[in-house]
Amino acid sequence: MDESPDRTRRAAGATNAEQFDALLTAAEDGVDFDGLRVSTDGETYAFATPEVERSGLDERSFRDLAAQYADYVNNWYVWTLADLSADREAFLRWIEGANERPVPERYAALREGGIARSWGQLRITATLADDGERRYDLRHEADAGRDVADLDRHDDPLDARHLATDDERGRYRPLKTAPTLRRGWVYPDLPSADLVRAVDFFYPATVANWHRERAGDLDVSHWRETAERQTGIYGVVEELPPEAVEWVAEACCVDSQCLKRREWDEDEATPLDAPRGDGEFPCREPCSLVIAAARTWTTLEREEPREYTFELTPSEKEQVEAIVEAVADGRTDEIREADVSEGANRYRARYLRAKRFDDEGNLCGVPTDEDGA
Question: Which among 88, 125, 93 is positioned nearest to 109, based on CA atoms?
């Protein structure tokens, strides 16, 4: 372990004496935290880390040894005496890998550029302030390598509400966990409480549900019980056929549409085949956007299939399929106007419409209804 004077002084900082006093007091009940073990028999003290173990220490010797291993003391002080709820503490410790990295390795990383984690499309980097407290840089993960000076600086967690409202093109984001968070902003120096508040504004309830899942307390509400709770205009979703529930999950709940990891199924005994996603935080029930979409699909699924006859060339059939694929995958903006080899190219679609649609907008002149409407 590095015991250089500079490191010891930095770790101890302004809170050194306060931390050591607190540790002496805590020794009466015993301390066993992240490798630090401290106790007293009422006359002398015992101090141990993975690197050293001493007993029979008087107070002065105890303080001298604690100063040599100030990172352990600071780590204990920060995490055990901070006024944090269980979910916030677990989240902040997860960011710096507190349960995976020993204290010396973790503190070295926090000092040397920080420890970074991704949370949805957020990039969170924890660093160590001179007083031993953590500070956090929060930004879009796609801006990970950009200088702070090149981004719009924010310090108030409330600003996250506005940053999360619209996407890059200024369109409203009805689903906060959709992978459409805009770039170009940064919170370069947040204290821990403000970091969690900002994350909650970007992705509401994700920290709390993530913690419940890790604790084995995530209360999952599957499709059937969620649908049965709906009232008013949304009560119809209870009638959605079982096979359509699968299509709902495939349409709305995969990684390309939502960053949550789906934990709900049709019911507890009937899992859905749609990919659950690889997100860090869970989805515990069908969200309001899914319910609203399912309401429309429930109505559409009441229609009986009909047989239509269209005359299309093989390329035109493939073009119709390509258009549906491009719209479903949100790729229409990526298709260049000059690339008419793409089925969903705007000019090629206009050509198909000019050739195959009649004046009423019917494909190949075939009316939708038998009465010609």
Answer: 125
Q: Is 3 helix (H, G, I), strand (E, B) or coil?
A: coil
Nearest-angstrom CA–CA distance, 1 and 104: 7
Residue 235 buriedness (CB in 10 A; 0-12 / 13-18 / 19+): middle
Whole-model pTM: value is 0.87
Query: Confidence class of residue 81 from pLDDT cuts 50, 70 and 90?
Result: confident
Looking at this protein, which amino acid is placed at residue 355? Answer: K
Q: What is the spatial distance between Cα 104 and Cα 92, in angstroms, rounded to a whole number?
A: 18
What pLDDT is attached to residue 8? Answer: 39
- Once rounded to an integer, what is the mean pLDDT over residues 220-240? 96
List the structure tokens of 29.
């009940």
Beta strand pairing call for 185-190 and 122-128 = unpaired
Q: How far apart are CA 123 and CA 121, in angstroms?
A: 7
Please identify which residue in the block is written with the tokens 């073990």: 37
